[in-house]
Amino acid sequence: MEILIAVLIGFILDLIFGDPLWLPHPIRLIGFLISTGEKIIRKVFPETKKGEFLGGAVLTILVTAVSFFVPLLILYLASNLNIYLKLAIHSIFCYQILATKSLKTESMRVYYHLIEKDMVNARKYLSWIVGRDTQNLNEEEITKAAVETVAENTSDGVIAPLIFIVLGGAPLGFLYKAINTLDSMIGYKNDKYLFFGRFAAKLDDAVNFLPAIISAYIMIAASFITGLDYKNAYKIYKRDKRNHSSPNSAKTESVCAGALNVQLAGDAYYFGRVVKKQTIGDRNRTIQIEDIELTNRLMYATAIIAVVLLCGIRMVMVLAF
Question: Which element (helix H / strand E) includes 153?
Answer without folding.
Answer: helix 139-153
